[in-house]
Amino acid sequence: MKTIARTYWPVVVCVVVYLSAVWHLTAVIVRQNDGHFVYVLDDAYIHLAMAKNLAVHGVMGVSPDQFTSCSSSLLWTLLLTGVFWA
């Protein structure tokens, strides 16, 4: 048992440091947003919304009723649309 602890101590230290950093960043995000956790990158949501609307409604946009040109990567949106169709 002691050899396992001696062998894997760097991994344990790295995991503890990583989880501490994630906890700290989450606490800072919640504190700065009045108690709400907010995902800082909206690009993922925009691509998924556009892909879903293209697959379901045939409209390339964030809302299902009108076209909006807000994608930073049209190819990625089209690939996600294929996933929604599948």
Notable traits:
67% helix, 86 residues, mainly alpha
Question: What do these coordinates show?
Answer:
- The protein is mostly helical and 86 residues long.
- It has helices at residues 2-32, 43-57, 74-85.
- The protein starts with a helix and ends with a helix.
- The mean pLDDT is 86.
**Per DSSP, what share of the residues sits in E-state strands of 2 or more residues?**
under 5%
**Poorly predicted regions:** none
Question: What fraction, in percent, of the residue positions are helical?
Answer: 55-70%
> H/E series, N to C?
HHH
In terms of structural class, how would the helical and strand content be classed?
Answer: mainly alpha
Distance between the termini: 49 Å
The major β-sheet equals:
none
**Helix count, per DSSP?**
3
Q: Average pLDDT across residues?
A: 86
Instruction: Using the alpha-carbon principal axes, give the shape.
Output: elongated
How many beta-strand elements? Answer: 0
Estimated radius of gyration: 21 Å
Q: What layout of secondary structure does this protein have?
A:
Layout: H1 2-32, H2 43-57, H3 74-85
Quick description:
The radius of gyration is 21 Å and the shape is elongated. It has 86 residues and is mainly α. It has helices at residues 2-32, 43-57, 74-85.
